[in-house]
Amino acid sequence: MKKGLFFLFLALSITLIACGQEEDIDTLDKHKGTIVSIEKKNEDSDSFEGWYFMLVISDVKDVNISKKDDDELKELAKEKDGAYYNVPPTIYKSSDLKVGNQVVAYFDEESQAESDPPVRDAEKIDE
Question: Which of 11, 25, 53, 85 could form a Cys-Cys staple with 122, CB 3.0–4.6 A?
């Protein structure tokens, strides 16, 4: 009897945790765009060790991004609703993130840095 109650409690706990995580994604903001830059962060920062820094710009269909340097990409991001994303290693390793890929980045707007273009922490990325 006690084993049955334990397994029932365990199953309910797992179900509630899984449902809670799905709801969290629904409350996040979304940004659709193209990856125009991605690089591994400096190893000097302990809190971001192994993380990646990615620039996503909303509308670059008519722009040849391969011929632009970092400063030009930053200016383009200011003009076309771009944002930088801190990408944790778990998300980076489970995705195929490359320059030119179309993505949807999920983020919490309240945690974004006040800058132009903004810097956000990626909570999830869909390709």
Answer: 85
Q: Is residue 8 assigned to a domain?
A: no
For position 113, which CATH number holds? 2.40.50.140
In SS3 terms, 65-97 reads as HHHCCHHHHHHHHHHCCCEEEEECHHHHHCCCC
CB 88 within 8 A of CB 51: yes
- Flag whether 19 is in a domain: no
> Residues 62-77: what's their mean pLDDT?
93
Query: For the segment 21-43, what is each residue's pLDDT rounded down to a tens digit?
Result: 444 778 899 999 999 999 998 76
